[in-house]
Structure formats: C-alpha cells, structure tokens
UniProtKB/TrEMBL annotation:
Organism from which the protein derives: Lysinibacillus xylanilyticus
Boundaries of every N-acetyltransferase domain copy: 9-168
Record-linked SUPFAM superfamilies: Acyl-CoA N-acyltransferases (Nat)
Name this protein carries in UniProt: GNAT family N-acetyltransferase
Domain of life assignment: Bacteria
A Pfam match: Acetyltransf_3
Length: 173
C-alpha cells in the first residue's frame, strides 16, 4: 500500500515480498554500525521484521516505509516514523543501501516524511536520534529542519546518542 510519493520516490508499506531486500539492508555494514544489529540473519527473520513493521502501522498509523524509486520500482531503503518506548516523541528514521547514497534520495524521503508527519498525521514534534559519529545523518537532519537538542541514553543502550528535534509550532514547512 502506497503511503505517499515524492517527485522520484514512492514510500509504501513493506510486504513479506520485500524480505530479500530487508535482509540485505539490515545486514549492511553501515546499518550495523549506525543503527545496530537486529538479529535478522535469514529471509524468514526478515519476514518477521516486516510483519513487526506492519503491526506497528496497524497500531499507531505509521512505521518505517519501504522507499522505492518510481522509474523502476527498485527498493532503495527505509524511511518513516517509530514510537520508541524509551523516547517521549515520535522518531523519524531512515536507512539506504550505500549504492544509493549521495543522490538526494534520503533527503527527499526524509523531508517528505517530516511533512507527512505534521500535515497528515498532525504530529507537532518529531525527534531523531543518531550515534555521535554519524555525521552524514546529523547533516541531513539539520537540512530537513531538525536541530540538535541534547545527548540521550536509551534504556537498552549504554551509548549516548544525539537527539535532534523539530517543533511544528516554531516553523512551518
């Protein structure tokens, strides 16, 4: 199911047919370094990961959407929203395979997701977290309008993460 689209991209719900792509994405060295090991080792694990995303969508009305290039329906990455137990606000996140970096896809998907979260879902505040050494993500978050707020430590993680935030009442998109 398509959630929304941009000039070059379609953001849609993941399906179990996307399991091979998800398996590749969540085991990419950049995912493992900056996001963490999700224990997805097989196509069946990837299907379970996808079903959890679908369940999140059914429960909260948002999740991490599969980002496809419109021209050829090639999956590029994930971008969307999550409500973590360890954060008060909804969190925007994204991850793309490295071969699609530097082409503006992450910016296009993340800025559209931020607009969707405010204009369609009615959220007033969006946050994002990054590791302290993930300069590329920090740069992109600032580019779409988020500002560094503080360091946070999630309950299940020893590492302090950078928390960025966007408040819709202080800026219009």
């Amino acid at each position: 199911m398509k959630i929304f689209e941009t000039e070059r991209l379609t953001l849609r719900l993941q399906t179990t047919d996307d399991a091979d792509f998800i398996l590749e994405l969540v085991n990419d060295p950049s995912w493992l370094r900056f996001i963490g090991d999700r224990g997805v080792r097989t196509v069946e694990d990837a299907r379970e990961y996808i079903l959890n995303s679908i369940h999140m969508y059914e429960k909260s009305g948002f999740c991490f959407y599969l980002v496809e290039r419109k021209e050829d329906n090639i999956p590029l990455g994930l971008c969307g929203l999550v409500k973590r137990d360890s954060l008060e606000d909804v969190d925007i996140g994204y991850a793309f395979l490295p071969k699609y970096w530097g082409k503006g896809y992450a910016y296009e998907a993340a800025s559209a997701t931020l607009a969707y979260s405010i204009d369609t879902l009615g959220l007033n505040r969006i946050v994002a977290i990054t590791t302290q050494d993930n300069e590329a993500s920090a740069k992109l978050l600032k580019k779409i309008g988020l500002k560094f707020e503080r360091l946070v430590q999630l309950s299940n993680d020893a590492e302090e993460l950078r928390l960025f935030s966007f408040n819709s009442d202080s800026k219009t998109l």
